């Protein structure tokens, strides 16, 4: 054996593992916590060092390596994935006034057999993100599968594309359970959407064929997730918010025993998933009404689109007691805001004639 005195530093395998851990840490600081510890150039240097090691030693490449976020694989079609726990939809409160929140609380209290003398029910109030639902499956702490909702029973496997989303952890801390499915929303921020459309317009102006601009962030996000060419998907900046669970290792097999929805969201946050800071506990109907009002008033200041808020009964025991009606849980409701997209009439279009005769509206 080589005496330690002459040891040539870590082996490529050790160095690759060390770099991955560092890059995971710094990417989380940068993309999820918005609080980087090192300059971008230093991150790039570590990233390139890892890329070089992996290029020289292909056997060291792992699916959870940060270098795998760049995409590249081109598919003919997406494979179907049967969800082990169905991805449900959510009942919508049609009364878009803040007072609509009371209808939900009334239904919940009635179903639980509560009278006015009983204490208020605790809820979690969340934003209703306007993107597309995603199920992320982790086994032994590593992201192994990302699937769209599809019809709720069977979705499409979009793992390579979802790996390009920097806010989606590729690997979880050691205290994560052996099986964990995180449910949440893939979306595109408004500034990323505007930058993407600027880029698309530049390509179209340069004569690129088959390029188009996107109607809204949700369409752009859906298009990116369903891109068969993951190299293109990687160039469409997507973000992610976690809001629930699918399958998880049960407590009697070493999984966590959550008692409330809020507790599980905070655990997801601790494992590295983005959870919106507007996610709050609300006790009783008045707090829900106030939440709907407060979020409605600040909606335009959010960096992404929402189409409402969601209320969920906080106690998981009460959720079980409430159960489902058809495919919708009785313990949750979406409370919308009046639509922002409106029909409008085009009154006139000015057309400029360029020097070469090209017409530009
Ligand atoms: S919970 C059992 N929470 O809204 C409830 N959904 O019809 C399952 N959505 O397609 C969903 N924000 O993609 C939940 N904070 C949130 C949400 C949310 C957006 C979407 C979701 C789903 C639809 C529900």
Description:
The chain is α+β, with helices and mostly antiparallel strands. Among the domains are: 8-67, Orthogonal Bundle (Helix Hairpins), CATH 1.10.287.610; 92-130 and 263-336, Dna Ligase, domain 1 (2-Layer Sandwich). The chain has helices at residues 12-32, 40-56, 100-111, 159-163, 190-205, 217-225, 230-233, 261-270, 284-298, 316-322, and strands at residues 80-82, 92-93, 122-129, 132-139, 142-148, 154-156, 179-187, 239-248, 280-283, 306-313, 324-325, 328-329, 332-336, 352-353, 359-360. The protein has a 5-stranded mixed sheet with strand order 2-13-10-3-9. It has a 4-stranded antiparallel sheet with strand order 5-4-7-8. The chain is globular. It binds 2-(butylsulfanyl)adenosine (IVH). 2-(butylsulfanyl)adenosine binds next to β3 and β8.
Q: Layout of helices and strands, plus pairs?
A:
Blueprint: H1 12-32, H2 40-56, E1 80-82, E2 92-93, H3 100-111, E3 122-129, E4 132-139, E5 142-148, E6 154-156, H4 159-163, E7 179-187, H5 190-205, H6 217-225, H7 230-233, E8 239-248, H8 261-270, E9 280-283, H9 284-298, E10 306-313, H10 316-322, E11 324-325, E12 328-329, E13 332-336, E14 352-353, E15 359-360
Helix pairs in contact: 1-2, 3-9
Bound molecules: 2-(butylsulfanyl)adenosine.
The site of 2-(butylsulfanyl)adenosine has 14 residues, from β3 and β8.
